[in-house]
UniProtKB/TrEMBL annotation:
GO cellular component: membrane
Keyword Transmembrane helix belongs to the record: yes
SUPFAM superfamilies linked to this entry: Fumarate reductase respiratory complex transmembrane subunits
Alphabetized InterPro entries for the sequence: SQR/QFR_C/D
Keyword terms of this UniProt record: Membrane, Transmembrane, Transmembrane helix
Superkingdom as given in the UniProt entry: Bacteria
Keyword Transmembrane helix on entry: yes
Annotated TM spans: 43-65, 86-106, 118-140, 152-174
Protein's UniProt name: Succinate dehydrogenase
Amino acid sequence: MAKKSKTRLVNGVVSACIAAFFLLHASIGSVAGLVPLSTGLAWVVWIGAALAAAHVALCGATSALQLTDTVRPPSVNKKRHLALKWATGVALLVAAAVHVFVIRTVGAHDMLSNISGVFVIAALAAALAAHVCVGSKSLLKDLGVDRSYRAAVRVTACVCAAAFALAALAGFMVR
């Protein structure tokens, strides 16, 4: 049981770091649409990608532990919830891949030159919010935080997603 707790704690910390990274990255991206920024810090994005890869690996490990637990086997509801977490994670991965493709194709500064860039940002923000909302209870449990904060985490994720989608729309409107 100690190994399970340690894996979940590490995954919770990595997840919190990813959330902070996304907030920072989206904030900088919002400003970059209005003001040209140096590309000298592009390596920081690779740190975020490495954190995401570690999160996927840790989620695989914790999912396997949960599904093979003989002491407390998962109920049908827990299995469905686990599938939903993976589905929203895959949706987030797809949205992030489209975002990277668009950035590499048209450039970061020109991403908001047409409405499709706004939709890419909005889809990415929505996928992230959905994934955070679905996984909020697990995240709080992994970090040892009272699960009564679940609603606050969900509201924060949705407000941030809406703010970044609106910022992308504003960047498009300014152009």
